[in-house]
Amino acid sequence: MAASFTRRFVPALGREVHRLGLACNYGVGAAGFDAAMDRGLDYVFWTSMRTGKVKPALKRALATKRERVVLASGASIGWFGVTVRRAAESLLRALGTDYLDVFHIFWVGTAGSWTDATLEAIHELKAAGKIRAFGVSIHDRPRAGLLARDPRLDLMMLRYNAAHPGAERDVFPHLGERSANPPAVVAYTATSWRRLLARPRGWQGEAMTAGDCYRFCLSSPHVDLVLTGPKNEKELEENLAALDRGPLTPDEDAWMRDFGRHVHG
Prior knowledge:
By secondary structure, this protein is an alpha/beta fold. Helix content is 38%, strand content 18%. The protein has helices at 3-6, 30-38, 55-64, 81-95, 116-127, 141-147, 167-170, 172-175, 210-218, 233-243, 250-264, and strands spanning 7-10, 15-18, 20-23, 43-45, 70-75, 100-105, 131-138, 155-159, 184-188, 225-228. Helix 4 runs parallel beside helix 5 and helix 9 (210-218) packs across helix 10 (233-243).
């Protein structure tokens, strides 16, 4: 396995991480979580939705090997400073940990707000040691490109896949404008909600696999991590095995982009 493809030092996190991040809300249970940790995954994205099966294993890992886990979570009600603070403190209590490695305001512009009040709350949480990095998830790509320039932002979670590669135009060119401390980029919806896993009408060739989708994302030099949401250990192993193939070849890249255009319609 190519170490440079599967692991990366991310300045915004201050450490090296596996580039496949584990999303806990797609069915993986305690055994799958433990298997992911054993296989070197260390970036964990957790929300309270559909994660009851995995929560005991996550809490156990946080209690016994906290520095091994990069824990990312956040709030989808981040409209005001007080709601941001309450959400972060609620997550800390729920998971029995002293700090979050990454705290997001989710869906900025739709379910959360980038304002002086919310940013002040983030500053206070950082100063208190309750969060280490601040991130947003956002679908408004032109606005994401503007936010990429703001030094207060440590990380952004973006939709990026073969059917929706628009971040290459609207966001990635702006990352270099903060050469000293560019925000980390975490790609999600790599399979376009599984639409990339089925042949669209009129397509005669093979469909992409989930592993293809993750390789597409990670082949971009601008993407630090991509989230995977396996239902079980079998899917986890299939996804990891796909990464053994390394970055896309030019022919693979051309094929996946063509397939993505057909899926997008």
